[in-house]
């Protein structure tokens, strides 16, 4: 049951990401709890970030349907070593950050072996494929994105006008 709730937590975090900047659809009912709403447990999340607002938001949304489920975030200072120690001792790790683990670097294979294959367990149809790519390994979904990072360029048009320049239309 705890494994299912950890999967639910992952999907809530993903939903928070996908919903950024979108208005809720009118007439759509919220998801109904798939598990006993009185179930009580703690989901342990490990990461390297000091401030994790998306997790706080996801935990609040999860608690609306499962009020007895606590989400505990542990910031690990020596992330790789601390995480492996937690795996070895069985100390609370239900969800862990994997952004730097998503390479094909052989040094990180032991992290992949601890990941749950999510293929077929959850409906990812509302998630843009490019978000899911980083969590794919040999055609199986092992990780979910928790953020997207997009760059942008801001232009001070008044400054450009001062120097007789126009806003660029290409990056060449």
Topology:
Elements: H1 2-19, E1 41-47, H2 53-65, E2 69-75, H3 79-89, E3 95-96, H4 109-113, H5 129-132, E4 136-137, E5 140-141, H6 157-162
Parallel strand pairs: 1-2, 1-3
Antiparallel strand pairs: 4-5
Secondary structure class reads alpha/beta
**How much helicity do the residues have?**
25-40%
Low-confidence stretches: 19-24
- Coarse morphology: extended
Put simply, the count of helices is: 6
Oligomer: single chain
Cα separation of the termini: 54 Å
Q: Name the beta content range.
A: 5-15%
> What is the mean predicted local confidence, pLDDT?
77
Strand neighbour order, sheet with most strands: 2-1-3
Strand count: 5
- Let me know the largest β-sheet: 3 strands, parallel
Radius of gyration: 20 Å
Pattern of helices and strands? HEHEHEHHEEH
Keyword list:
172 residues; alpha/beta; 33% helix; extended; two-stranded antiparallel ribbon; three-stranded parallel sheet
């Amino acid at each position: 049951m705890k494994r299912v709730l950890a999967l639910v937590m992952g999907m809530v975090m993903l939903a928070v990401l996908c919903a950024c900047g979108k208005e809720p659809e009118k007439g759509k009912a919220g998801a109904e709890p798939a598990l006993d709403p009185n179930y009580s447990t703690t989901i342990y999340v490990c990461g390297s970030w000091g401030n994790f607002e998306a997790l706080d938001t996801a935990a609040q949304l999860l608690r609306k349907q499962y009020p007895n489920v606590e989400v505990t975030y542990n910031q690990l200072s020596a992330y790789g070593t601390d995480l492996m120690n937690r795996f070895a001792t069985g100390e609370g790790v239900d969800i862990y950050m994997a952004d730097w683990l998503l390479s094909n670097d052989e040094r990180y294979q032991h992290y992949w072996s601890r990941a749950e294959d999510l293929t077929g367990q959850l409906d990812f149809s509302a998630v843009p494929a490019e978000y899911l790519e980083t969590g794919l390994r040999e055609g199986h979904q092992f990780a979910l994105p928790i953020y997207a990072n997009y760059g942008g360029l801001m232009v001070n048009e008044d400054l450009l006008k001062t120097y007789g320049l126009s806003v660029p239309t290409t990056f060449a």
